[in-house]
# Entry
Amino acid sequence: MRRLTRTLAALTAAASLTALAACGGDDGDSASGKTTLVIKTFAQFGYEDLYKEYEAAHPDIEIKEENIAKLGDYAPKLQQWIATGSGAGDIVAIEEGNLSQYMTTPDQFVNLLDHGAGSLKGEYLDWKWDQALTQDGKHLVGLGTDVGAQGMCYRTDLFEKAGLPTDRDEVGALWPTWDDYLATGKKFTKAKTGAHFFDSAGSVYQNILMQQGDHTYYDTDNELVIDSNPAVKAAWDKTTELVDAGLSGNITPWSPQWNAGFKKGTFATIPCPSWMLGMIEQQSGEENAGKWDVAKVPGNGAVRGGSFLAVPKQSDHPEEAADLVKFLTSAKGQTTAFKAKGNFPSALKAIDSPEVKEYSAPYFSDAPVGEIFGESVKALKPVYLGPQNIAINDAVVAALTAVEQGKLSPDKAWDKAVADAERLVR
Amino acid sequence: MATQLRPRPSVRDEAHADPPPEKTRGGLLSRLDKSGSPYLFIAPFFLLFAVFGLYPLGYTAWVSLHDWQMGGKGDFVGLDNYADLFDDPDFWNATVNTLGMLVLATLPQLLLALVIANLLNQKLRHMTLLRLGILLPIVTSVAAVGIVFSQIFDRDAGMVNGLLDLMGIDPVDWRADKWSSWLAISVMVDWRWTGYNALIYLAAMQSIPRELYEAADLDGASRRRQLWSITVPMIRPAVIFTVISSTIHGLQLFTEPLIFGQGGDAITGGSLRQFQTMSMFMFEKAFKNFDYGYGSAVAWMIFLIILLLTVVNYLLVRRMK
# Structure
């Protein structure tokens, strides 16, 4: 028996040693004596050149970016890192939709006001600054990176086939409102090019919703108002009208078919926030250079998405991390990122700098995106989102998809979306 | 007398102190070796099972009794999570989906496996090659199977819709309906598992004495009659095994429907949860909504349903003669 006990004891000891060894990861200091700052990002932030520049100016700092391609995969991981207090590294990127939920527990993040960010207030769009500031104004969770300024991307070759104008000013003039967009879509469909007018109800709905008012599913007291907020219903109705006219391709965003759709020209238009330009270019590939162009979006300016950089409390180097955040989100940093990946700046100096204003995207038939997005940004009103807005939005978009598939009538689908939202919040 | 007799042997023992204890210790060791070492040899499995099986099972039960969100343990709520679960239409929808796909996948799969095994049990040329061939799908990664079949069942550019089009049938939006999505997913499952089950049946068939078939031949029994009257009854243990293991696999179906769903919000299994399985529902609750308490309750319900169905299965198949 004793032998068994001894063996067991040895096994246990060995097991716990292994476990201990596994727990003791590196604490962020590399062997060279440099401080390593780990920054977690999703999609494309376009910071590569900025890292090099910062490392050159700060020889004792080494920057390591850990990127997850899809926001949908990144967001739950971020939630886990923050909640469990480990894994978040030194800097995290937070998307606007996710930020509202972290604003209810700001103590998980370093207060950037303690690191001299207060003097930067005037540098950013007011509402962008306020989004990451607690209501009492004492805790700044993050600094803004980009804003999802809206444009309408369209395929010039398909428009030409359908006998529509291809010049971006003329195209923008086709749709001052969403009703005009609907009319244009009908004309396009009649021409039978074989392509759909837009990709999916979800994309269009998102854009219309963000133009409707200052809040969506929640009011500013975080009460669920999906059923009583006319803005949501208005966006819903307009979207189902567009679907009803047969304009939607019903292609799930972020699916392989959607990715392939950019290349194959399966849809002629797609509402494109500035951050989507880099993705469209990547998916469409070399052979379609010059076929995509960017026009003004129907309705008044809208913002969809946009991000922040924050320093989680769990960082071992909050001081250094905060300094890097300030560098990356500075007007200069944002301008560099914009030129790299099209992420539109939220810093006023960057928006107004000639570098941004006069910038045109070579891939998009030299569209003056700096000017198009700049106008969109200035026209926009900030929208309050609220804690569970993403989960609720997923439910609403799923209901819209059911309408597209012809599985539910718009009314029934609306009831379902509201019921799902209410169950999510309960 | 007795009191006087006792010390004596003890003195004697002291005198021969060395050899006897050696002997008893050696005896003890060998007895321990005989009775103890088998336990020692199987201990690794049970240790691992305790750590990675039993402990999580118990801990999940503990979590399911709490209001446990991402921030950590909340209040003890007793069976509230389970009560909510019984009222949750999405859970029952997922259960129906899972059972539906289970039936749709398992029945044809086992019948097909039986037929294939029966064919492979004859004297054919290139036997090894054929037997290897039916095993190939099982070494293919599930994700690869999911991706390829998702393209085959694509609405706009899929092969199946292309063939239907040739026959003059309208294209099917495979993800839009329950029946179509279940069918597509069942095909993936069958493609992957039929060969595996066939191999098990084949192994069992090889152990059936040839004389039985010879006797049946003499009696003039047809091939089909031989299959149902000799082969199937003789391989019943293998049938029980495959029925139970496919049931368990089927109830835990996850990767195929998830990949079939695609897009950013695939975990809900379609716009109206047409093909969300129980495991996907559990994952959605625990790791998308971060409601760990509720997710754990779902996990336990899955466990209980599997247990229940396994028992039912076992009883049914045992009765079957």
Summary: Confidence is low (pLDDT under 50) at residues 1-17 of chain B. The radius of gyration of chain B is 29 Å. The CA atoms of residues 9 and 15 of chain B lie 10 Å apart. The longest helix of chain B spans residues 19-64.
